[in-house]
Every structure is written in C-alpha cells, then in structure tokens.
Amino acid sequence: MRIIAGRLRGRRLTAPDGDATRPTSDRARQALFDMLVHSPWAEGCLRDVHVLDGFAGTGALGLEALSRGAARVTFIDNHRPALAVLRINIAACKAEEVTRVIAADARKPPRGDAAGLVFLDPPYGQGLVPPALTGLAAAGWIAPGALIIAEIGAEDALPTEAPLLVDRRFGAARICVWQATSP
C-alpha cells in the first residue's frame, strides 16, 4: 500500500496484522481521488481543506488527501493496533504538524472543527455509517455542504437517503459520495 499521487507520492504505508483493519485498495483509492480531482461536482474539494478521516485505520485516505493539497487531516479511530500503525504512517509522511489523531468511536466523537471533506470507512456489514454521521454532525465535525465519502461493503444498504453523486463498486467494496445538507 502506498500514496498514489501528490507530494507524498510513492510513500509506503503500513497496515496492522490481522484482518480487523481493511485498508482501501490502491485501485479503489486511485479511482476515488481521480473523481475528486476531475469531477465538476468536486471542484476544489481537496485544496486547503480540513479533512476528517473517520474509522481511519491506516490513514491512507486522509494521507492521500494531504498529499494532494488538503490543509490538515483529523483521524478518528478506536482500534489500538490501527492507531499505532496510523501514527507510524503519519510519521513516515512527516505529517505530524498538519494531522491530529483522536482515539475515539466515530459514532460518539468529542466536539470538533467542521471538515469540508469527510471519509468514513468502517467495518463492512455493521451499518456504522448512519450513526457515525449523526454523532459527527452533532459534535460539529461536518461542515455544511461537505463532501461525504463512505466505503461500505458491496452488499450493504446505502448509508444515506441523500442523492448520491457517486455509487461505484470495487470488488467487495462500494464507494458512495454525497454532499452534506446545510443545517
């Protein structure tokens, strides 16, 4: 696993042992970021934005966004082995000054700063995206109009009733993108 493009291109990332953390494949991440860079609905969504990477795992999504121009990234995860590897990956990218790691459940996060781009990549088949969105919104993490990107299992129910900008399958994964509604 590596950073695909941007100033950190080619940087190798580590994943924890076992299958508790399932990193987004390089292929799916490449396709997602190609959409974010080239789609009219995503114009400017990466440049100088605060990114929230919920269920962060290895941090690959947030670090890829940072590599491509995001101003800062906040990572939320509550799995100890993932948090340890996440910190190693942040150090490998020399990104300590522009990242923050919060050891918490994304469904019940502490108060935070609104992010314009939100990644949610929870374990598949557990329906965690809707309660995470509720908790994150209540704690102030989601800016009005933010792009929300959820990676769910290919057979999982859609995580929102909002109109989707993207609904693409990548093997066992499904990536859904929509825009947060204004309060």
UniProtKB/TrEMBL annotation:
Keywords: Methyltransferase, Transferase. GO terms for molecular function: 16S rRNA (guanine(966)-N(2))-methyltransferase activity; nucleic acid binding. The gene is rsmD. SUPFAM superfamilies: S-adenosyl-L-methionine-dependent methyltransferases. Pfam families: Cons_hypoth95 (PF03602). It comes from Acidisoma cellulosilyticum. It is an enzyme of class 2 (transferase). CDD domains: AdoMet_MTases (cd02440). This is 16S rRNA (Guanine(966)-N(2))-methyltransferase RsmD. Its EC number is 2.1.1.171. PANTHER family: METHYLTRANSFERASE (PTHR43542).
